Amino acid sequence: MIPKIKKILYATDLSANANYAFGYALNVAMGNDAKVSIINVYEKHVSQTNITMRSNDFETAKKKLAEKIKADLALFCQKEHIEDCMYDTLIGEIYVATGLPVDAILAKAKANDYDLIVMGTHGHGLLFSALIGSTARKMVQFSEIPVLVVRLPEEKNGD
Known about the structure:
Helix content is 50%, strand content 20%.
């Protein structure tokens, strides 16, 4: 049986090269008549000095982050010559969440019945991965739905 992919959850850290993985999400969406929803997880620091400030400003920060994601996506679509009307047909929801990235992404994917998760990885090397563990590795390990992990190109200075 060939799986039907109709709902894709693209997880982004908003890094300069994150749009590279977004291109893969769009490609899968266009080939399957699917929609791509985007999630960014904001890790709240729990130090006492930040708790009050971040709690008060979270809604404002969430709105600004959603606006940034929309602006980044509009630039990407312009650069890749994707028409505005295609943007409306390809993009679903934009989520901004707090917490641990793996937990938040998996919870959203399960709650909304996504068919595929797409995300990038920087690939910090074997020692880093063995000692600290990577978000991408944990996503593949714990996800009940398929995860497409895209190796991101190295960051370029001046871009």
